[in-house]
Design a protein that fits this description.
The complex is a heterodimer of chains A (232) and B (500). Chain A has 232 residues and is mostly helical. Chain A is built from five helices and three strands. In chain A, strand 2 and strand 3 (193-200) form a beta hairpin. The mean pLDDT of chain A is 89. Chain B contains 17 helices and no strands. In chain B, helix 6 (172-197) runs antiparallel to helix 7 (202-237) and helix 12 packs antiparallel against helix 14. Mean pLDDT of chain B is 90; it is low at 487-500.
Chain lengths: 232, 500
């Protein structure tokens, strides 16, 4: 085997795979064709474009920098690849008061506004595809979801319902400041200290805004629907 | 040209001694700073692992939060230790096998410092909260061009050695190393350019990241380790390679299969459906190249049991190749699309697989190579047989524990994750005992590697034994030793008269 044969063999064996699974899919997926809703559907019109409100790009940066993706995923797999969809609060809500069963799989449009989809590497904590929905409707039902998330980020085990959680505390996302006048609306109370409070810093605000934007359970066009028989 | 090719044993020994001396400082620099990074990485790994079962541990400091310590641990392990150990082995083996002295030790050494600067800044970047959030690529964006440039400077002379070596037989180790040297920049540039410089679909970006992790493992660390194993096995045991055609089969099957692997980590994510399936199939098929190389090298090494029992290099290399076999079985077992893949896709198994590949296989072979190379380049023998066997035992028990616990713990955890009828917390709890076991075993590995680092640093300071007797794992420095009576210090080795 000469060096020439060797280089040719290497280029061919690596190059074919490189083109087929990296380069071509990368450029093909750069501009996904918009998927229209059929005219008959009355609730939605135009193309499927799951808008997200909040500081998505900023929050995604904080999410990445603090390694949330090491324990949390952001993908609800179709049933051929796992049972995520059966969980009552992962793919959406099993019983949304207004919309019924909103659960669905993650699709390629769900990461609009982000540079990198934090699919995740491990699940030591629950999937976060619909964490915004879940916190609003279940965890902080009737309360303030933003404050619930601040308290959760500060220390998840402060919540008696989550005493077994192994999610790390993030005290560094908060600043201890003296209360001047009335307490700030977003601040966390410090037990036994009436003169100080914990105010979320800019990163905490961005992160919570990002988490609350995660409501990936909108109705999808039939071509994206894995269970067309399901009423949506 | 013909005058440069040694004809007698003495000339040959002189040439080898010259090559060893020309590369002493680069090789020792890469190995020693690599070992230091290994200790740092394991220390961070212990902290991260404690945090998995005791989340309140050291939680007051932002830079020690789990989400930063864990990526710092992995990146220090991969780029700090893994790549630097690979550099040491590549530059030494390519020079030895091409029979060329290195004339650019200073340049390589300088580039090695730049590499270490990149790693240091990168790890600090991760700990201070500037990581990119792309697994195994968490170093802040400025780091990758720095690493790439120093990589090319470090590796260039090995290419040159290969090109100017003259015609003749090219040994399988050289093909493995040469391929690794070409694959790494191709993979590294592809992943970094597509993820950092071009705007693409965010899900495809995650897919490329998964491919990058797999490709780095199987197209860089694997070929470097196999190149070293194919060198050490016949060299130390004194037997020819069991089957040369099997060696070629192993090489080309790796080259054809491994580039397709990796994206099974995105099964169910919205990327084209064939990508995860191709990834799962390719990862399972890696059993073929792994088995071909493992059987071939093991057959060679196990021929002579006496040498096997006494040689530190062989003991580590055999352990590493056994690690490769376990890795090959795990690659099949964890990637069955209908059963184990969904269960282990997001469980501890992924970490177990990575650690098995990087530590259980690659690192062990690198240790084997280190125990072979260092006495030659420093012309001193290892100080202590006990330090070597302690290093071996604690590392071997430690990594067996980490890998098995994570692989099987991952399956347990996966069963819980898939059991959707129970609340999530019951799945999350399943990780607890395995996390405790992982912490314990990382502590064993840390213990062993602190001593490894010290031993290596003393060797670099040339405080090794001045003796003609290699340090073997069985004590026989008496008259029955194959090297004669202990005590005659012939430190300069063969050809010493002209070696200065």
């Amino acid at each position: 085997m000469s060096l020439r044969t060797f280089i040719l063999g290497l280029t061919a064996s690596f190059g074919v795979a490189w083109l087929a699974i990296i380069v071509i899919p990368f450029f093909k997926m750069r501009d996904l064709a918009p998927i229209p809703f059929p005219d008959a559907q009355d609730t939605t019109a135009g193309v499927f474009f799951p808008k997200r409100a909040g500081r998505v790009a900023d929050g995604a940066r904080v999410y990445a920098e603090n390694g949330c993706y090491l324990c949390h995923t952001q993908v609800v797999r179709p049933t051929y690849a796992g049972t995520d969809l059966y969980r009552p609060d992962w793919g959406g809500l099993k019983a949304d008061p207004d919309r019924g069963d909103t659960r669905r799989e993650t699709n390629a449009f769900d990461f609009i506004g982000e540079k990198y989809a934090q699919i995740g590497v491990m699940r030591l904590g629950p999937d976060l595809s619909n964490v915004g929905r879940r916190v609003e409707m279940i965890n902080a039902a009737g309360g303030n979801p933003t404050k619930w998330l601040y308290a959760h980020l500060k220390n998840p085990r402060d919540n008696p319902k989550l005493w077994q959680s192994t999610c790390p505390p993030h005290p560094f996302l908060f600043e201890k400041v003296a209360i001047k006048g009335s307490p700030s609306p977003d601040a966390i109370k410090i037990p036994g200290d009436d003169t100080h409070e914990l105010v979320p810093n800019s990163d905490a605000k961005a992160l919570v805004s990002y988490l609350l934007s995660m409501k990936k359970d909108q109705a999808v066009p039939p071509t994206l629907n894995f269970a067309p028989g399901k009423k949506d | 040209m013909s005058s440069a090719i040694p004809t007698t044993t003495e000339q040959d020994a002189l040439l080898r001694a010259g090559i060893d001396r020309s590369l002493r400082h680069p090789v020792m620099f890469f190995l020693t700073s690599g070992a230091a990074w290994l200790a740092v990485s394991i220390f961070l790994g212990v902290i991260a692992s404690i945090k998995v079962h005791s989340p309140g541990f050291l939680s007051g400091w932002a830079f020690l939060s789990y989400g930063r310590v864990f990526p710092a641990h992995m990146n220090a392990l991969i780029y700090g230790w893994g790549m630097q150990a690979a550099f040491a082995v590549i530059i030494w083996l390519m020079a030895r096998l091409s029979r060329k002295e290195c004339t650019a030790a200073g340049t390589i050494l300088a580039a090695g410092h730049v590499w270490n600067l990149g790693i240091t800044l990168g790890v600090i970047g991760i700990l201070t909260g500037n990581g990119t959030g792309m697994h195994w690529m968490e170093f802040p964006v400025f780091a990758w061009p720095l690493l790439l440039v120093s990589y090319f400077i470090i590796i260039t002379w090995s290419f040159i050695h290969f090109r100017v070596k003259g015609d003749g037989h090219v040994y399988i180790s050289q093909w493995y190393l040469l391929a690794a040297m070409i694959w790494f920049p191709w993979i590294f540039i592809t992943a970094n350019v597509l993820l950092h410089c071009l705007q693409g679909n965010p899900v495809m970006a995650a897919g490329i990241n998964a491919w990058y992790r797999s490709a780095l493992t199987f197209l860089f660390f694997t070929p470097v380790a196999l190149g070293a194993a194919y060198y050490l096995a016949p060299k130390v045991s004194g037997r020819p390679v069991f089957s040369y055609s099997l060696a070629k089969l192993g090489f080309w099957s790796l080259a054809v299969i491994a580039p397709w692997a990796g994206m099974q980590k995105l099964t169910g994510a919205p990327i084209p459906y064939f990508l995860p399936y191709v990834g799962a199939a390719a990862t399972a098929l890696l059993f073929i190249p792994a088995c071909a190389a493992a059987v071939n090298t093991l057959k060679t090494m196990l021929e002579d049991r006496e040498v096997l029992a006494s040689s530190p290099s062989l003991r580590f290399t055999v352990a590493g190749i056994v690690g490769l076999l376990i890795l090959a079985v795990a690659a099949v077992f964890l990637n069955l699309p209908d059963t184990t893949l969904p269960m282990t896709q997001f469980s501890l198994s992924g970490y177990g697989f990575d650690i098995l590949a990087i530590y259980g296989f690659f690192t062990f072979v690198m240790f084997g190579a280190t125990y072979f190379i260092v006495p030659r380049v420093t012309r001193r023998e290892w100080l202590s047989r006990r330090l070597i066997s302690t290093h071996f035992l604690f590392s071997a028990y430690g990594v067996t524990f980490v890998a098995l616990v994570a692989l099987f713990g991952g399956l347990q955890q996966g069963l819980g994750q898939e059991d959707w009828q129970h609340p999530w917390m019951s799945a999350a709890e399943r990780a607890y005992p395995y996390a405790v076991a992982t912490t314990f075993s990382w502590c064993l590995i840390l213990f062993s590697n602190i001593f490894f680092f010290l031993h290596l640093a003393l060797m670099w300071l040339r405080l090794g034994r001045r003796s003609s007797h290699p340090t073997l794992l069985v004590a026989s420095h008496g008259s029955d030793s194959p090297h004669g009576e202990e005590g005659d210090i012939d430190n300069a080795g063969p050809g010493h008269a002209h070696a200065h």
